[in-house]
Amino acid sequence: MVVIGVDPHKASHTATALDAITQHTQETVRVEPSLREYRRLLRWGTRFAERQWAVENAHGLGKHLAQWLLARGETVVDVPSTATARVRELSRGGRRKNDALDAAAAASVAALHGDAAPVAVDGPATVLAMLDERRTNLTQQRTRTVNQLHAVLRELLPGGVATDLTAEQAATAVGRIRPASPVERARRGLARELIADIRALDARLHANKQRMQNMVAESDSSLPEITGVGPVVAARLLGRTARAARFPTAAAFAAYCGVAPIEIASGDKARHRLSRHGDRKLNNALHTIALTQVRIRTSRGRSYYDSKITQGKTHSEAMRCLKRRLADHVWRTMITDEQRVAAGPGGHLGASLSSSAAGSTPNTDSSDQSLPGPTRAHHTEPVLTG
């Protein structure tokens, strides 16, 4: 068995063939990032009958090559750059670093079954991740535009305008302004341009949300049945998680989302603190669900929150407890969906449950009665907040 490690860069890709048993380097080749060079790299790799490709940062600089190899039936694993750095640190070469050593280190990590993870072919989950990133950019652009509009209106109107302001209300307020100088006319013209930009951004956000809703509906996911999970939150959960089965337990998923407490002291007086690591966007999605649950007094999440308050916990502590329980519930829901898709005559998510989590979904016990129930949340249209 030969593991081919790849160290990708913008200007070149370096591949090193490593014997999986002896850990001896066999050959090294360097190619340019082009389709013609990709084909040359693949012809070189086919010299080894049993092979596996280990691409460093296969979801970053190595994404294009990794997906190109997967489309041609090759087996590809992702090796994080931190893992290759550890291999270089512990090797006899000390801290020496070059492309060939990085490629060999990536192959060594994959051969030793360390931090390497299988790379899946891009599918609907990738589309949802792209839509989520696009929505984030549009939202940030809209916030900047709204702040600019508020700044202009403060100079046109005494005291400015209220924080909660829609595009229509802003247009009405600007329409009543009668400029008395060229400067005021310029400001009124700028305000109208900003209002037009906000309307265009609102239209794009609405179209983005509609595409998310359609994609989530096509995936046949049960996430929208959870209180507080709308199309935007569901798209973020599905897009950034990709496959819930890659997390062996609900605790692993919670740690990945950054909602699992970290133990900072051992012994009889063990202490924990809030995790500051993990995927912050998934953490934000769970926080949105928890916040919606708490605001709906009839939800099971609110009942769980109230029970923690009764126990003497503060609002922040109760919210952290609720987010931790929600992480378990979301993971269980996605695992169940993936099992159903894998057992059926096909599916939309395109995920095979290769992880041990496929058969390790926890059974519902009495403690699950406090988990959020399957009730859809209500969503409101955005307002112009500064």
General description of the model:
One of its GO terms (molecular function) is transposase activity. Residues 361-372 have a biased composition (Polar residues). InterPro entries: Transp_IS110-like_N (IPR002525), Transpos_IS110 (IPR047650), Transposase_20 (IPR003346). With 386 residues, this protein is of the alpha/beta class. The chain folds into 3 domains: 2-118, Ribonuclease H-like superfamily/Ribonuclease H (Nucleotidyltransferase, domain 5, 2-Layer Sandwich), CATH 3.30.420.10; 124-219; 223-352 and 366-370, no CATH class. Helices cover 51% and strands 10% of the residues. It contains 12 helices and 8 strands. The chain has helices at 35-45, 63-70, 81-90, 99-111, 124-156, 167-175, 182-219, 231-241, 250-257, 280-295, 300-310, 315-343, and strands at residues 2-8, 13-19, 25-31, 51-56, 76-79, 117-118, 262-265, 271-273. The strands form 2 sheets. A 6-stranded mixed sheet has the order 3-2-1-4-5-6. Strands 7-8 form a two-stranded antiparallel ribbon. The longest helix has 38 residues, at 182-219. It is globular, with a radius of gyration of 26 Å. Mean pLDDT is 85; it is low at 347-370 and 372-386.
